[in-house]
Design brief:
- This protein is α/β, with parallel strands linked by helices.
- The radius of gyration is 25 Å and the shape is elongated.
- It has five helices and six strands.
């Protein structure tokens, strides 16, 4: 691989990183928000290295009289061309129901005493908070309460489906799913983002590990996917 081609490949990689991290929010499909500055910095460095390499190659070409190139690189370097073009023209989609259906639910642990729940009805909750309340809150504060949560649909069986959120520790490679089984509501396609209101679906003993992390749906409303879908955030509406 000639130096000019190496420089072009570096420029493409740099532009790809800047495209997904600086000019769009596509990077949030793959990494946490806190990683964005590092991606931007990496994109700038690759872009500058590519430009510098191209300028050096032009300068050496003008002063080199023996007409052949002494530079070289492994052919495997061409494999970098595919992800670079992908980031520029067709970024892979975010993780969703396909991933969630093939992994167990994240173990949610609440390490301190539970605070009293607000009196609002329906009560906005995250999926993690609902899970910990159902299985660890001995006071059974969610019993009989109407709660509201937002996530995407993961198809299930037996007349139920799973309201899901995928959470990242760092990037998509370490993604974990938080799931609440939902009984009732319309039959929606996988990855549809919804806000669900309902009450705890009885199963096992509330406040213990035997309790079902499940909800009897009263309303199911479609909502837009949030810009950063890898957060277990409070409901959108």
């Amino acid at each position: 691989m000639k130096r000019s081609l190496q420089a072009g490949l570096l420029v493409l990689c740099g532009l790809g990183l800047l495209h997904i991290s600086l000019f769009t929010d596509l990077c949030l499909r793959y990494v946490k928000e806190g990683m964005r500055p590092l991606l931007i910095a990496s994109g700038v460095v690759l872009l500058l290295l590519g430009i510098a390499g191209a300028l050096l190659d032009r300068g050496e070409g003008a002063g080199d009289g023996h007409g052949h190139d002494h530079s070289g690189a492994p052919r495997v370097a061409w494999l970098l061309l595919l992800p670079a073009l992908s980031l520029l023209f067709y970024a892979p989609p975010a993780l969703g129901a396909y991933t969630a259906a093939r992994q167990p639910a994240k173990v949610v642990v609440h390490d301190s005493d539970f605070d009293p729940l607000p009196r609002a009805s329906p009560l906005p909750m995250t999926l993690s908070d609902f899970t910990s309340r159902v299985r660890q809150d001995r006071g059974q504060a969610v019993k009989g309460r109407t709660v509201r949560m937002t996530g995407f649909v993961t198809p299930g069986d037996g007349g139920s489906w799973e309201l899901t959120r995928i959470i990242l520790n760092c990037c998509a490679a370490d993604a974990q799913s938080v799931k609440v089984r939902v009984y009732g509501g319309p039959d929606l396609p996988a990855n549809t983002w919804v806000t669900v209101t309902g009450t705890w679906h009885p199963g096992g003993t509330l406040g213990t590990g035997s309790a079902a992390v499940a909800l009897d749906a009263r309303t199911v409303t479609k909502v837009p996917r949030p810009v950063n879908g890898y957060q277990d955030a409070l409901p959108l509406q």
